Amino acid sequence: MPRRPLPTGFGAASSRAALALSLVLGGVSLAPLESGAASPPSTPPTGVNDTAGERRVAEAAAALRVPDAGDVRGDITLPRRGAHGTTVSWRSEESRVVNPAGEVNRPEHGADPISVELTATVRLGPHRAERRFRLTVPPLPERNPEKGYLFTYFTGAGTADGEQVHFAASRGDDALAWDELNGGEPVLTSTKGEGGVRDPFIVRSPEGDKFYLIATDLRMHGDGNWDEVQRHGSRHIEVWESTDLVHWSEQRHVRVAPDNAGNVWAPEAYYDESIGAYVVFWASKLYDADDPDHSEDTHNRMMYATTRDFHTFGEPRIWQDPGHSVIDSTVVSEDGTYYRFTKDERANSDAAPCDKYITEEKSPNLRSTDYTFVADCIGEAEGSEPGISRGEGPTVFESNSGDKWYMFIDEFGGRGYVPFETTDLDSGEWTMSENYDLPDSPRHGTVLPVTADELQRLRAEYGTGTSG
């Protein structure tokens, strides 16, 4: 089934229609600083005359954008720097709804949407341009309990469409019983970057009514070379967004990694309330500055960058570097503690007996670089307890009943995902689940708890294919 277009009023087209521009000098209002106004924070380059300065601030103002201005559901990024070395300041006609820092306070559920005008002032020396944006802020949604689950995943490099985004829906509220959606065919297909996507991860916004799906830009089907794609692979992630899980935006191809990165693998995100932004994290091999060809050996580290809107990202930082390769981190939180689960990527040796299995750590600070060890070798068979031969791509989620946690671990080269469970995250003890029925060949992905209405909508839109 092809991807359905967004409904009217959502996305880039409606955002452009929502812009209110002063119709002076090509749509941008230009004015010198008034007498007595504060000095601008920057001065124009030497030799810039009045005409050139006016043109530059006009171009910088025209280049500004506020994504999804017609449907603002969370905090937004308002840039402070513009093109040509300009600075940008913002003012709002309704700061209690959208303030100049881009923080959004939506009306209560059941109230009317609120229209807010933002004005950007672009400065370069004595030159100034203004651009106005009309934003629409909808009321908060009604929050309903989760009564089912959505599973997003890829199926492997063995088929031409295996490295695309597949969906499955739980049978009611059973996290261990699934039906493939869309006849087992991909729901989202990459048309950018490498043309394939792996490791799809979906996150719900803190407001509850927006979803971001991000994935690795990678295609190994055919003649993919694992060494090459870690030296000269993509530095981008692929992004889709939705407000209802069935209407999806156009794909965005967004760079997040620095120049010395050889790859960006398995991006995930977690909302950090302490900074009001998502922390997006992934694995990258980083090469030394004196190795521009990325020819030397190095290892994967976990990196992160922050974003409010999955359009604009902060500077990438190293999050986890134990001195050897680690990949595929995922995070959950409980009672103020963040639990991080990561694949140990080392080759088996006496020094690394838990290679190719999952390590659990914890911290009170999501972005900490000093997590405390909880357990390793998670997934490995022990005594009479069953397990997997090796594992990666853990996805961890709490049951909707709140009585246990699940961890699905991808037994790569084997069965694909295998479910484990625990009643105590702090124990580090995980037991393989019994009597499970997963989709056919699910690989690294995400399980997202959904409401009964969301589950019904997914099944109605995409239909069911086959059970696992």
UniProtKB/TrEMBL annotation:
<keyword id="KW-0378">Hydrolase</keyword>
<dbReference type="GO" id="GO:0004553">
    <property type="term" value="F:hydrolase activity, hydrolyzing O-glycosyl compounds"/>
</dbReference>
<comment type="similarity">
    <text>Belongs to the glycosyl hydrolase 43 family.</text>
</comment>
<dbReference type="InterPro" id="IPR046780">
    <property type="entry name" value="aBig_2"/>
</dbReference>
<dbReference type="Pfam" id="PF20578">
    <property type="entry name" value="aBig_2"/>
</dbReference>
<keyword id="KW-0326">Glycosidase</keyword>
<comment type="pathway">
    <text>Glycan metabolism; L-arabinan degradation.</text>
</comment>
<dbReference type="Pfam" id="PF04616">
    <property type="entry name" value="Glyco_hydro_43"/>
</dbReference>
<dbReference type="GO" id="GO:0005975">
    <property type="term" value="P:carbohydrate metabolic process"/>
</dbReference>
<protein>
    <submittedName>
        <fullName>Glycosyl hydrolase family 43</fullName>
    </submittedName>
</protein>
<dbReference type="InterPro" id="IPR023296">
    <property type="entry name" value="Glyco_hydro_beta-prop_sf"/>
</dbReference>
<dbReference type="InterPro" id="IPR006710">
    <property type="entry name" value="Glyco_hydro_43"/>
</dbReference>
<feature type="domain" description="Atrophied bacterial Ig">
    <location>
        <begin position="57"/>
        <end position="138"/>
    </location>
</feature>
<dbReference type="InterPro" id="IPR050727">
    <property type="entry name" value="GH43_arabinanases"/>
</dbReference>
